[in-house]
Amino acid sequence: MGSPGSHAYYISFNIFNNGVTFAGSKVCAYDRTSMLADLPATQQCFQLSNSFGGLLPSDLDGPASPPPPGTPSFFLNFGTNSLRLWKFHVDWGIPANTISLGFGSNLIYTAKDAREPERISG
User: Fold this and answer.
1) What residue spans define the domains of the chain?
2) Cβ atoms within 10 Å of 53's Cβ, excluding its own
3) Least C-beta-crowded within 10 Å: which of 8, 31, 79, 88?
4) What angle do CA 29, 40, 10 make, to 5 degrees?
């Protein structure tokens, strides 16, 4: 749900209309800075079509340096024989500058045989 130094917590939801019909994933960013200061926080969300589900946000743990300012958050989901890499950049100052999701890369995975780990390229 966001990385150290990040200005947002990122999360995804699988949305169902009337609790039955899959409507697609919704990805959201929550204003981390406001939340940590115990101030009212806003969110920015994007609803994807029902062609896309199960997006998982990236996470950074441990002593690694935080990403540079302006770095988007990444999400992954399964495609057909691929992992789709999505980008989401939120702008709290000017919400109109928030970049909508769109997958930019298909990371293709194939297994040489059942005894070897899967290989990823992309």
Assistant:
1) 8-59+70-121
2) 17
3) 79
4) 15
Report how far residue 1's alpha carbon sits from residue 7's, in angstroms, rounded to the nearest whole number: 11
Task: Look up residue 62 and give its amino acid.
Answer: G
Which SS3 state, helix, strand or coil, does residue 4 take? Answer: coil
Count of other CB atoms within 10 angstroms of residue 73: 24
Work out whether strand 21-31 and strand 8-17 pair parallel, antiparallel, or are unpaired.
antiparallel
* Amino acid at position 88, single letter: F
pTM above 0.70, yes or no: yes
Cβ(105)–Cβ(88) below 8 Å: no
